[in-house]
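Run: sequence + flavin-adenine dinucleotide -> complex structure.
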Amino acid sequence: MQYEQFRQKLCSLCGLCMADAWPAKESMRSCVFNTGWLGARERDLFGRERSLDDTEELRFGISRERFVGRLKKPLPRTQFTGIITRMAQKAFESGLVEAVVTLHRSREDFFFPRPVLARSSEDILAGGGSKPVLSPTLVSLQDACREGIQKLLVIGTPCQIHNLRNFQEAYPYLRDMEIYTIGIPCTDNANPRRFRWMLRRVSKSHRTARHVEYMQDYTCHITHADGSIEKVPFFSFPRELFGTNVFAESCMACFDYMNSLADITVGYIGAPLDREKMPQWVTLRTEKGRVLRDLIADELETSAEFSSGDRRPGILMYANKIIPRLANRDAAPVKPGRDVSLKEGREIADMLYETGPKGLEFAGYAVDMHLVRNYHYVKFNYPGLLGTLVPRHVYKILEDYEIPA
Ligand SMILES: Cc1cc2nc3c(=O)[nH]c(=O)nc-3n(C[C@H](O)[C@H](O)[C@H](O)COP(=O)(O)OP(=O)(O)OC[C@H]3O[C@@H](n4cnc5c(N)ncnc54)[C@H](O)[C@@H]3O)c2cc1C
Ligand code: SF4
Ligand code: SF4
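>> structure
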């Protein structure tokens, strides 16, 4: 194992440098924190960059089709209904691919990952469910190489898909493989060293937590082993969680929430909130993405996207709060505790959910607030990297809110 990646400060531990089948130097040259987000990669894949005049494409990336959907028969132990896991199973069972790069749960911690190259339906099914920490998924690419896999499916975060596409093009190791990609939207991923520390402060019972997701009603839903759901409003998170490297630094310098280079992206953020049906939000981007979706078309219940409300007031309020906080890097350490009680936090979350943006407008809100925050994080902490890391659509979004770059 090579651990040269630890010499690079911005690193999301994607696993590419941890392979010993190729020099870590080559992985690092393909790393998105050295090459930058989108730009040339988007042009390579789609023949053009996203339009700056199309407000949806600007935020969600280039696509052929988007829809709200769920599996009619949800798969057990998956994050929502298991669209990703089912597509992966069908891709394998139909012979479209010979193996799937995914993650199992580690034996040490339920929420930690164990990278696997899955070569059976059971192993693919065991990959279901989120591991909400940085995960070295791409280390399994070397197993695929060694086993002579010709047709491969990779399930990954946006940084992983960027690194994979760049590496496949730049170096010979994967060049002859036919690779399909399924992307998850991703933001604010946790540093594995800080994850339990954080969950202990957020949940009343972190040991029994089995499913964690930041949902559209401004609360973190934590499902426990006995099936009960704890909802913790974002506004009531203890203040010591902010500014303590809970979210990895790499994730504060991330500019592709929607996984725009994946063949197909499967999330939930633009779907309606329905705890019973758990609807998902699917963005089909390429011909390979269409092939993957068609594998499960008859197992899907679908509906059209919807949109309501206005994201602007929330973004402007957030920008006014977060930009000065990021600028003030010499601030004294915060005292532990909540600024807002759980009861008050719930009232604020209920009020915002009632009156705030929904559907696509909520997804736009989530994208914009992270771009505004991450742009300023890079500006104040890594000003020399602004030119490399930040894709051009970010400047258009800042301009739309009249936030100076
Ligand atoms: C850290 C994180 C943040 C996310 N944030 C959002 C968000 O803000 N908005 C949104 O719409 N969706 C987000 N998602 C995606 C969402 O949680 C679901 O994974 C997605 O909607 C697919 O649901 P599913 O039931 O089809 O997935 P499943 O069928 O359960 O499949 C999930 C797949 O994702 C893989 N996976 C799990 N954790 C990771 C990880 N850490 N790194 C790489 N691969 C992983 C699994 O191995 C599995 O193959 C996030 C996921 C993660 C891990
Ligand atoms: S993100 Fe991946 S490619 Fe980049 S330095 Fe870290 S391990 Fe290497
Ligand atoms: S937030 Fe961005 S950098 Fe962090 S794991 Fe997700 S895709 Fe990678």
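>> summary
The chain has 15 helices and 13 strands. The mean pLDDT is 94.
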